[in-house]
Write a structure and sequence with these properties.
Low-confidence stretches: none
CATH topology of the largest domain: TIM Barrel
Number of strands: 18
CATH superfamily of the largest domain: Enolase-like C-terminal domain
Radius of gyration: 19 Å
Structural class: alpha/beta
Helix content: 25-40%
Strand order of the largest sheet: 7-8-9-10-11-12-13-14
Number of domains: 2
Largest sheet: 8 strands, parallel
Distance between the termini: 27 Å
Strand content: 15-25%
Shape: globular
CATH class of the largest domain: Alpha Beta
Number of helices: 12
């Protein structure tokens, strides 16, 4: 197998910000795996949160290129080898995992979701309102509601949370997911969450720093809303560790390493009676498609990374209102936009 990669630059329509900072543009990496006349594609979306950068991802991809072997159908053994050798670069592994699944689907002329025995991916996604001034929040919410989104995810953990949420609740009474992105310490989180109860959140995501995961159980006991772990839950083993401390986990390919590892996390969580959510970073449809492939297996989807862009370089995910559907094209179902 021949693996090559190239950077692509993406620009959100609006600056995308959380309690931890923001971006006006970003680069991701498009992975290309060619073998026996067939080509598969994947996208690497590195995050500094997990010790990843463009440079570390590219170095890992260069090393992986010599480790793939000659059988793209041997997904389990190939990807197990990559986990063993590149455990700290799971974003790069996710790009390779996606490209391999895309290759197999294209080779067999079937969508990956059918290859996995799943229903055609069709799910309601939340739409994210990032940290911003009130004028920009007002515009974003108006645009989201006009576009038909029925569930919003709001980044909180900053000084003007209440101003933001009051403004949003003036025009939106649907499901509201509040994502603090590790904003609070254990000593302040309970009071913060109690104060947010008036906005009737459907869920509160990662209120504490990742290392403070043991304290999440106390916040769950408040009964304000289900508590989900994001940054505290990277790998399959974390799902087991978090059982009893949270109501659910947010599974992202950048953290776990792709389709195969995400399937393990979903299976573990469901077996333990925990809720599951598929999440994402700002990215193109090429990174969203493999996660959307698994949408029929989870409770919630926050797969709007491509919907936040000024221009998406890939196409194949249809949106009607807040519902996104993956195409029935072979492989991951997305192709470069014309």
């Amino acid at each position: 197998m021949k693996l090559t990669h190239i950077r692509q630059r993406l620009r959100p329509r609006y600056r995308f910000a959380t309690s931890q900072g923001g971006v006006d543009e970003l680069d991701t990496i498009v992975v290309r795996i060619e073998h026996d006349g067939t080509v598969g594609y994947g996208e690497v979306v590195p995050s500094a949160l997990y010790g990843q950068s463009l440079e570390t991802s590219e170095a890992a991809l260069d090393a992986m290129a010599a480790e793939l072997g000659d059988d793209p159908f041997a997904l389990e053994s190939v990807l197990a080898r990559l986990v063993d050798r590149h455990d700290d670069q799971r974003a790069a592994m996710a790009g390779v995992d996606s490209a391999l699944h895309d290759w197999v689907g294209r080779r067999l002329d079937v969508p990956v979701w059918r290859l996995l025995g799943l229903d055609r991916p069709r799910t309601r996604t939340t739409f994210t309102i990032g940290v911003a001034g009130m004028d920009e929040v007002r515009v974003k919410v108006a645009e989201a509601l006009a576009a038909g989104y029925e569930a919003l995810k709001v980044k909180v953990g900053v000084e003007h949370d209440h101003e933001t949420l009051t403004l949003i609740r003036e025009s939106f009474d649907g499901p509201l997911v509040l994502d603090a992105n590790q904003a609070w310490s254990p000593s302040e989180a309970a009071d913060r969450i109690r104060a947010l109860a008036q906005y009737q959140p459907a869920m509160i995501e990662q209120p504490l720093h990742a290392a403070d995961w043991r304290e999440l159980a106390k916040l769950r006991e408040l009964g304000v809303a289900p508590i989900f772990a994001d940054e505290s839950c990277e790998r399959p083993a974390d799902v087991v560790r978090l059982h009893g401390y949270v109501d659910g986990v947010n599974i992202k390919f950048t953290k776990c390493g792709g389709i195969r590892e995400a399937l393990r996390m979903i299976t573990l969580a469901r077996g333990l009676g925990m809720q599951t959510m598929l999440g994402c970073f700002v990215s193109s449809s090429l990174a969203i498609a493999p996660a959307l492939t698994l949408a029929s297996l989870v409770d919630l989807a926050d797969l709007d990374g491509h919907l936040l862009l000024a221009h998406d370089p890939f196409e194949g995910i249809e949106r009607r209102g807040g519902v996104i559907t993956l195409s029935d094209r072979p492989g991951l179902g997305v192709v470069p936009a014309v």
